[in-house]
Amino acid sequence: MIDVKHVTKRFGEGQTAVTALGDISLAIPEGSFFTLLGPSGCGKTTLLRLIAGFELPTEGEIALDGDSIGHLAPNNRPVNTVFQSYALFPHMSVARNVGFGLEMLKRPKAEIEATIHEMLELVQLGEFASRRVDQLSGGQQQRVALARALAPRPKVLLLDEPLSALDLKLRKGMQSELKRLQNETGITFVFVTHDQGEALAMSDQIAVMSAGAVRQVGTPEEIYTAPQSRFVADFIGDTNIVNATLLGFDGDKAKIRFGEGTPLTVQTASTSLTPGAVHVALRPETIDVVDEGSDRALLRGAVVDSTYFGAGSQMLVRLDDGVDVHVQVATSRAIGARVGLECDTSMLHVLED
Amino acid sequence: MAKFMSLFRRSTGSRELRRQPLFTGMSWLVLVFLYAPIAVLVVFSFNDNRSVVRWTEFSLRWYAAALENDDIRRSAMISIQVAFTATVFSTVIATMAALATTRGGVYRGRAAAIALINQPLMIPEIVTAIATLAFFSILRQLTGVTGIGWLILAHTVFCVPFAYMPIRARLSDMSVTYEAAAADLYASPWQAFRHVTLPLLMPGVMAGAMLAFVVSLDDVIITLLVAGPGETTLPIYILGQIRRGVTPEVNAVSTILIGLTVAMVTLTFFLQRKQK
């Protein structure tokens, strides 16, 4: 279990100081596949480097299984990293790269040999032990980097956008491979990415970050279906964000209405919002297109675009207040047609800004 | 010095320049003036005649004479002894300086440190020579120590910036992620240097060492002023001989020196290319 407690990281001094992380607290459960997700510059890589020990926190503390590690040098932390650029040592064979960590720990030769063999088998590179690293493809180098970082059996494996240099097909394969490795080894994986698809597919838990702060922590399902803020809803993909009026609260539910429509009781990210204009998340797959005049219609607008994708069509409907909404339908309507949108109100979700 | 500096500049796109009128003509003219005298010297070292202007027949007699000359052999040994020792010391110092200026993080005075290390390249050698002579005279008197150590010390000092350039260039190009990876894999700072940084830096270190060796081997001015009796290096010996007129024997020794220098510079060039 990694405990990040009130960590702040500033680069530079005085006037020119840049705050990369502002008072972050995070608990990463032992043995989980934990993803730090966010756009570039959000501080996710800085947080990873703080856990690895390549940077020291300006304020705050990082603890691993209760022991404070925030001030230790990287070589004194039971934490290994898979670098974005892999950083395999070009002057060593694949086997020596994999054995490097154990060699530095002065483990017995026989143990090192056995572990190299085991690790290369684990990443399916058994026959490549004596190769030079520059004779390997990008995907193979990636797996050597994984084997090298796993060989010393760290408590935590840090992965810094390790799949970003691979092409799409290879990336899909590596996603399931990483998931398998995590299951087999039981080591805590902390994975940094800006790709929400990757995060949703692989993680046990996701921390969505922006501008040096953690915006939401949850399972992929929670993040996807119940985004707390407009930022998270926007970042996690194709969610529609529409305007509504907040009337008040009913227990832990919010009462809202669209335009002058009937009041609805829906889920909310927070019960401390001030009544008035709010944003509501609306997933494309929960929307049905009905006739404009239908009394089931909650929102009304005109079709401005339609894209056929085989299994159905994706329509873009411009609401009367000018907001665009994506809708997935079996049969599309003509462009310019007026339509009404009905949706499952239990899937509506009021967002914090 | 300029010829060494040019080794570290990457070739810039010169396709446009090549189309300029006079470019080819000028280039050849410059090359001829640079290398024709050397070519003449080399050719006449193989001349079976006392004259250094009139060709008669091919012969290796001046090489044989040079190799049998005890003064030449003695001064060659001193040159090699000084150059080798100065190379080892200056390369070690230059490597440490390069590490401090590329891997020590950003600190106040780093730019000044780099400038100070390179500055000797810009100071006229005669100034350095006179300063060294005066300074060493004081030290010799104070300590009472004499011997070839002073000459080696002087050579070590002026070789440092030459060794520093390629080592620093190599380190600047080298990603710090390798060292981060080593530290991440439980290497102590010393282990990371020993197993990762130094092996990757080796082409730069070799290039720096070879430049230092050549510069030391070639040096006249500082050596002339600092060297004590019995510390005559090969260039100083040649200079002494020249006063009595150029002899084919001197041509032969010079040709050997040129050959050695060319071999070193070529090797440096290929080492630098390999690391790219």
From TrEMBL, chain A:
Taxonomy, superkingdom: Bacteria
GO molecular function: ABC-type polyamine transporter activity; ATP binding; ATP hydrolysis activity
Organism name: Shimia gijangensis
Purpose of the protein: Part of the ABC transporter complex PotABCD involved in spermidine/putrescine import. Responsible for energy coupling to the transport system.
Keywords associated with the record: ATP-binding, Cell membrane, Membrane, Nucleotide-binding, Translocase, Transport
Subunit structure: The complex is composed of two ATP-binding proteins (PotA), two transmembrane proteins (PotB and PotC) and a solute-binding protein (PotD).
A Pfam cross-reference name: TOBE_2
Domain ABC transporter intervals: 2-236
UniProt GO cellular component terms: ATP-binding cassette (ABC) transporter complex
Catalyzed chemical reaction(s): ATP + H2O + polyamine-[polyamine-binding protein]Side 1 = ADP + phosphate + polyamineSide 2 + [polyamine-binding protein]Side 1
Keyword Transferase: no
SMART domains documented for this protein: AAA
Record-given protein name: Spermidine/putrescine import ATP-binding protein PotA
The protein's Enzyme Commission number: 7.6.2.11
From TrEMBL, chain B:
SUPFAM superfamilies named in the record: MetI-like (SSF161098)
UniProt main location, coarse: membrane
Subcellular location(s) of the protein: Cell inner membrane; Cell membrane
Domain of life, per lineage: Bacteria
TM segment ranges: 21-46, 78-100, 121-139, 145-164, 200-227, 252-271
Gene Ontology CC annotations of this record: plasma membrane
Family per record: Belongs to the binding-protein-dependent transport system permease family. CysTW subfamily.
Function, in words: Required for the activity of the bacterial periplasmic transport system of putrescine and spermidine.
Name listed for the protein in its UniProt record: Spermidine/putrescine transport system permease protein PotC
Native species: Shimia gijangensis
